[in-house]
Amino acid sequence: MSKRKAKYIKQPFESMGDKFIYDEKIHADTSANIFESMLLSDAYTDLLARQQQLYTLCKAQWRGKRKPNKDYPDMNFSDECFYFNRAQVMKYKLYTEKSASNFYKDMGVLIAHGFIVCKAQGNLNGRKSIYEFSDKWQTWKQGDDFNPKTKA
Predict the structure, then answer these.
(1) pLDDT tens by residue, 15-38
(2) Taking 90 as the threshold, does the pLDDT of residue 126 lie above it?
(3) Residue 12, C-beta contacts closer than 8 angstroms, at least 6 positions apart
(4) Across residues 99-125, what is the average pLDDT?
(5) What b/e readout covers 52-89, taking b as 16+ CB neighbours within 10 angstroms?
(6) Mean pLDDT of 129-149
(7) Which one, of 88, 48, 75, 68, lies nearest residue 133 by Cα?
(8) CA atoms of 108 and 14, how far apart (whole Å)
(9) Does the N terminus or the C terminus of the chain have fewer Cβ atoms within 10 A?
């Protein structure tokens, strides 16, 4: 008989509850778990603090948000895929309009370090970009370069 895993209960210091109001709209509260093995990895510690925070925002977007595989069932996107673009990240105030180009550079760094893969670029067709989480960060070493243009 297998044991059933208990559902994680948020602590008051972690969240405002299951839902919160932002920009006069009700939003579901999502989490962005990052494990210690990642925090201590060569790939993660090589990132700038801003790039680490961007990765956390990607994880928050992935959890509990609409998935590309529901919108494009014929394109066979995995469950690890998520939508993300500059407009979404601007609400977190990590970038300003003047520093918006840093968003694209930082996403390129996340790709180069093996954290994500770009599956579809939205800026080419007026849609959100689609990214997929990757485990290549686990074997990343200084000097490795997972090409940001690579889609697999």
Answers:
(1) 777 787 877 888 777 778 889 999
(2) no
(3) none
(4) 89
(5) bebbebbbbbbeeeebbbeeeeeeebeebbbbbbbebb
(6) 82
(7) 68
(8) 30
(9) N
